[in-house]
Amino acid sequence: MVVGNPVRVLRAAIVTNQKEPSHTVKKRTTVTTILCALALAAVAHGQQVPPLAPPRAAFSFPQKQTLTYSVDWRVFPAGTAVIHFEAVGDQERITANAETTGAINLLFHVSDHFQASVDRTKGCTEEFDKQTAEGRRQVNSTLKLDYGQSKSILDEKNMVTGVSKHVESPIPGCMTDLLTGVYYASSQPLEVGHDFVIPLVDAMHRVPVTMKVEGREEVKTSLGIFKTIRVQPTAAAGVVKNRGNIWIWYTDDDRHLAVQMRARLFWGTITFRLTGNDSK
User: Fold this and answer.
1) In degrees rounded to 5, what are phi and psi of residue 131?
2) What is the distance between the alpha carbons of residues 31 and 180, in angstroms, rounded to a whole number?
3) Distance (Å, rounded) from C-alpha 256 to C-alpha 197?
4) Is 175's pLDDT higher than 50?
5) How far apart are alpha carbons 187 and 254 in whole angstroms?
6) In whole angstroms, what is the distance from residue 167 CA to residue 169 CA?
7) 161: phi then psi, degrees, rounded to nearest 5
8) CB–CB of 86/63 below 8 Å?
9) Which of these, 184, 177, 176, lies nearest to 114 by C-alpha position?
10) Which residue range(s) make up the domain with 191?
11) Is the CB of residue 253 less than 8 Å from the CB of residue 268?
C-alpha cells in the first residue's frame, strides 16, 4: 500500500537505479525512502497484478487519527513524518507530511506532502496526490484511478522547469497507492507464515508486492514496549531487489498499528519509530 524524514524518505532511495553520484543518491534517500521504498520494493513491468483483497470483516479505517514518527538515518536524527487519517463520507482521506530536520536539513532540505483518497469499504485508492520538494527538485502530481474505464490518469508538473506531462495507462482493477499500502496491510489478517500480496500503483507502474509475515518481536519506542508482528515487503524485481531489505512492525492485536518501519539499504539504514498516536 505510509509509508520520519519524510514519507518520501523511502522513495528516493529507489533512485539508485539512475546514474547519479553516490553523494547525491545518499542525500536524496535520506529523505525519501520508507513510505515509498517501503511500499515500493519494486518498479516492475509485465507482472501479473492480483486484485486488492478487501479489508477483513472486523477492520475499520480510523474515523480520525494522527500518527507521528521520528526518523533516524544510521545514528543521526533525520526528520519527522506525520500521517493523518480521517473518514469523509464513504472515503478515507490519508495525508502525510514529511520534513528533514537538523544537520540533514542543512545538507539536503526535503518537504514532502501526500494525500490519498480511499474507498472505505473496498480499500481501492481513488486519487493520490504528491507535492515533493527535495533539494532543487520540486514536482507536483495527481494520480487518479478510474475503475469505470479501467485506467490510471497521471498529471505531473515540474515546478522548476515548468514541464508538464499527462499519461494514461490501463489498470487491472482495485489497487492501492504507495502511501496507503503501508497502512492497508493493517486491514489484512497478519498470521506468521501466511504471506499476502498487495497490488500497488505509482505513476504508471503497477507492482504486486508480497507482504511476508515473518515473526513476532517486542519493539520499544518512546510510547512504550509493543508486542508486534514483523512483516517484510518484497517484490520480484526492481531497484531495491538485491540492494537491501525493508520491514514493518505492526502491533500484535486487532489494530495492527505500524509502530516501526525500517529500510536497510546499501547506503545505510533508515528507521521510523512511532512517537505520537492521537485521535484527532
Assistant:
1) -125, 110
2) 18
3) 17
4) yes
5) 9
6) 7
7) -90, -20
8) yes
9) 177
10) 9-275
11) no
What is d(CA 30, CA 115) in angstroms, rounded to the nearest whole number? 21
Instruction: Evaluate whether residue 207 is within a structural domain.
Output: yes
Number of domains comprising the chain: 1
pLDDT reading at 196 higher than 80: yes
Q: Determine how many CB atoms are found less than 10 A away from the CB of residue 11.
A: 29
Beta-carbon contacts of residue 173 (< 8 Å; ≥ 6 apart)? 51, 52, 147, 150
- For residues 70 and 96, the answer to whether their CB atoms sit within 8 Å is no
Q: Kindly report the pTM of this predicted structure.
A: 0.81
Residue 3 in any domain: the answer is no
Is residue 280 in a domain?
no
- Residue 126 has which C-alpha cell? 481513488
* Residue 186 CB contacts under 8 Å (≥ 6 apart), including other chains: 59, 250, 255, 256, 257, 258
Which grid cell is 266? 546499501
What Å distances lie between residue 57 and 60, 116, 177, 218, 254, CA to CA?
8, 22, 22, 27, 11
pLDDT of 206-253, one tens digit each? 888 899 999 999 999 999 999 999 999 887 654 445 557 889 999 999
Q: In this structure, is residue 1 part of a structural domain?
A: no
d(CA 171, CA 234): 21
User: How many residues comprise the chain?
Assistant: 280
Strand partners, 64: 86
- Which residues touch 143 (CB under 8 Å, ≥6 apart)? 127, 128, 129, 130, 152, 153, 154, 177, 201, 202, 203
Residue with cell 553516490: 22
> Residues 9, 98: contact at Cβ < 8 Å?
yes
**What is the Cα Rg of the chain in Å?**
17
CA distance 87 to 162: 35
